[in-house]
Task: structure prediction
Amino acid sequence: MSEPTPALRFPDPSEPIPTTAEVFLRYLGYFRAALAGRLRALPEAALTTSRVPSGWTPLELLKHLTYVEMRWLEWGFEGQNVGDPWGDRKDDRWHVAPGETLESLLADQDRRTARSDQIIISHALSDIGRPGERWAGNPPATLERVLFHLLQEYARHLGHLDIVAELAGGSTGE
Result:
């Protein structure tokens, strides 16, 4: 399989793609690129302002999705010791520390997604994750199931960000 590249357009379902793993990588690449693009298009003040009753901000969403990838692929699927898998939370809500900026959080996401892509490339979709704390005593999932969940997280949260971006006057949609 080739190295993943950032997706700049939504994957066309009729386009032939050689493997299912590459389908996952292309969709993940699209969602990651769309997230970064939407965030970069927002006015700076909108990045740290909540426009929804639940209180999250766009920067908190970015940090959350970075941690989601780590929790599902490194901590969950590979069973790695990752230190604080819930480092995107404080007082039971998403949190961005003082000094964390859009660019620093995007750089963190780039490092995390490069690691995620390597995990995806180096395993078969049918591989079963290692038992560990992530699974809370349940049998570990296959990589395929983890990737379906990860795509769902990105799609759902990108939809949330579209609403926030529209309210802030930023770009939305595909």
Summary: The mean pLDDT is 91. Residues 24-168 form a domain with the Four Helix Bundle (Hemerythrin (Met), subunit A) fold (CATH 1.20.120.450). The radius of gyration is 16 Å.
